Amino acid sequence: MRLLLIGAPGAGKGTQSERLAARFGIAHISSGDLLRKHVRDETSLGKTVRSYVDNGDLVPDGVVMDMLRKPVLAATSGYVLDGFPRTVDQAEASYAAVRALGVQVQAAIHLDVPREELIRRMLARARGAEDAEAVIEHRLQVYLEKTVPLLEYYAGREWMSIVDGARTADAVHEDIVSRIHKLAAFAPSALTRR
Ligand code: AP5
Ligand code: MG
What is the pLDDT of residues 68-115, one digit of tens each? Predict the structure, then answer.
């Protein structure tokens, strides 16, 4: 099974991806977690991307795509991709590559959470520079400018679901699982194929 979680900063992509990965025995691949690990480990990639991550700007497409290629190909039981693609350009550039390899996404979930709740969650978590109030504001602006057009580009596709992410993590998880099951009933081979 190959899934995509899309949502604003603080929407719960990481929280839900971990649960889905455990439930379905698939890999959780988070572009943000991988980038933060490079920054922590002070790798050369980490040094290149640090200011983008700390300031809440998107890292250049090529850097993110190069970084994700290996984990996506290694995820032979499937994956839940968290934080990628987040622009129309990234979706278009990666589609041809993954399709040729037969590892394209089979279902995408948009986690929809109101702005006030996103801010509340990020301020409560305070994950370093990127969760400072001004940077949170900037990340939300980048989301509106770059990722909302991606949601519009995907709108209406039968493999795309919008889930109310403002409920408890358990309720959101069960809703996502039921959407996936419905999709599997509609197109059984789509979710069982590698
Ligand atoms: P990334 O790590 O993807 O950050 P983000 O999109 O800003 O989202 P977060 O990880 O902050 O939130 P989340 O949706 O995962 O929510 P979480 O589960 O943590 O990206 C970081 C940076 O990397 C970007 O700014 C950019 O620089 C770069 N980057 C990454 N991908 C890129 C790409 N494709 N292209 C270019 N650059 C890229 O939850 C948040 C909090 O809420 C937690 O404390 C959690 O416990 C809590 N919570 C979760 N669910 C619930 C719930 N249902 N109820 C109450 N609390 C909840
Ligand atoms: Mg995350």
Answer: 999 999 999 999 999 999 999 999 999 888 888 888 888 999 999 999
Number of domains in the chain: 1
Mutate to test the pocket of ligand 1, among 4, 15, 18, 82 (most ligand atoms within 8 A of CB): 15
Task: Confirm whether 113 is domain-assigned.
Answer: yes
For residue range 141-166, list pLDDT tens digits in order: 999 999 999 999 999 999 999 999 99
Ligand 1: which of 52, 54, 58, 173 to mutate, judged by most atoms within 8 Å of the beta carbon? 58
SS3 string of 5-40? Answer: EEECCCCCHHHHHHHHHHHHCCEEEEHHHHHHHHHH
Q: Whose CA is nearest to atom 27 of ligand 1?
A: 53
